[in-house]
Design a protein that fits this description.
Helix content: 10-25%
Oligomer: single chain
Order of helices and strands: HHHEEEEHEEEEEEEHEEEEHHEEH
Radius of gyration: 20 Å
Number of helices: 8
Largest sheet: 5 strands, mixed
Number of strands: 17
Distance between the termini: 37 Å
């Protein structure tokens, strides 16, 4: 994140983050983390085909030299190395353990599993587990291009359709939300003619490229124990009509970790940026809302002498009734209607949207 004093250079993304989350978390504060230099931050592939390692380094110094899956420290072929002698870059040392993690951390951007080395992803996933066990909740948006990447004509990195395979019709799940120690957040919408008191729908705006909730199944991580019952029910009662393989590392699987876990409204929210009111349609919205809700829940727990929730997913799946189930809508991609929202967990809206009173009662009971 680069700072500016010019009102018209202030981007809508950070403005959106603050304006949507702060009214919910107040009087608690919001922390913006700044890592890497302008060279990396200006790279359009940052957090798409690499990324997040230097952020995790800054949160946990031990991650700077952590070894797993044949990788030690950051990947010299993908991650920026410091000191960096290039003009305009950071000439100092790698930032290791310079920040204290907040109890809830949310991140917007993501890439596709198929574009990043498996060892890179798995090593990083272990750090999310470690921080989750220390009381840090990590939330990532599940994406806003359905079951695929954006098409190449719109900046995607996976060919003309954003999908995989020789015909460009194979689903393409997002990273790093498929890591089972991250909470992946999908997108819903209140359509015209409806109100917030009506059931929401999975978002689908069929512009080019279509904007729809990211969802699907990992080809790297198996279904985690906490999700096993929900996934089994989904396949038993609402089996998608697509060919599949029963092995990880294949393209269509039914034994992979499913995303998203939950969802939140993320369409046509108003934000002021550069002094102008604009309606914003973006995955950037969803995890900010959900993260703000978790921050409020942590505040309540801390107020009665309990610890932050930390890793969220086991508790979310253990009590699905504290989510508002979404049963309408589909996402798009790969020349299919992809997945549909159905009763129970599904790979488009997850367990549903948060019901704060129910969540508060539940999390205050937990140790």
């Amino acid at each position: 994140m680069q700072s500016t004093k010019d009102l018209h250079q202030a981007g809508p993304e950070v403005a959106l983050d603050l304006q949507l989350a702060f009214p919910i978390v107040y009087p608690q504060e919001i922390t913006l983390y700044d890592v890497d230099d302008f060279i990396v931050q200006a790279n359009q592939l940052d957090t798409y085909t690499f990324g997040f390692n230097t952020f995790l380094d800054a949160l946990d110094g031990s991650h700077c030299n952590f070894s797993a899956y044949g990788e030690t420290s950051n990947d010299p072929n993908l991650d920026q190395q410091y000191p960096d002698p290039n003009i305009g870059s950071w000439n100092g040392q790698l930032m290791c353990g310079v920040y204290i993690p907040t109890n809830v951390i949310s991140l917007s951007h993501e890439g596709q599993e198929a574009d990043i080395p498996v060892s890179y992803q798995k090593r990083q996933c272990l750090e999310y587990m470690k921080l989750g066990l220390q009381g840090v909740s990590f939330l990532y948006a599940s994406g806003d291009s359905g079951v695929s990447n954006y098409p190449a004509s719109f900046g995607g990195t996976d060919g003309p359709t954003g999908c995989l395979g020789p015909k460009g019709n194979i689903f393409n799940a997002t990273w790093p939300g498929t890591c089972p120690f991250i909470t992946s957040v999908g997108v819903t919408k209140v359509y015209p003619g409806y109100t917030v008191n009506d059931p929401a729908s999975a978002v689908l705006d069929p512009a080019f490229p279509s904007y729809s909730s990211g969802g699907g199944f990992s080809i790297i991580y198996p279904i985690p124990d906490y999700q096993a019952k929900a996934a089994a029910t989904y396949f038993d009662k609402h089996s998608p009509p697509y060919p599949y393989y029963s092995a990880l590392s294949r393209i269509r699987v039914r034994i992979g970790r499913g995303i998203p876990d939950v969802s939140v409204n993320g369409d046509n929210d108003a934000v002021y940026a550069g002094g102008t009111r604009i309606p914003l349609v973006a995955l950037l919205l969803v995890h900010r809302f959900f993260s703000a809700v978790i921050t409020r829940l942590n505040e309540a727990r801390l107020g009665v002498g309990k610890k932050p929730i930390g890793f969220l997913n086991p508790s979310l799946y253990a009590n699905p009734s504290m989510s508002n189930d979404i049963t309408n809508g589909t996402n798009l991609g790969c020349n299919t209607t992809s997945f549909a929202s159905v009763p129970g967990w599904d790979p488009i809206t997850g367990l549903g949207t948060p019901n704060y009173p129910k969540m508060l009662a539940y999390y205050l009971i937990l140790p």
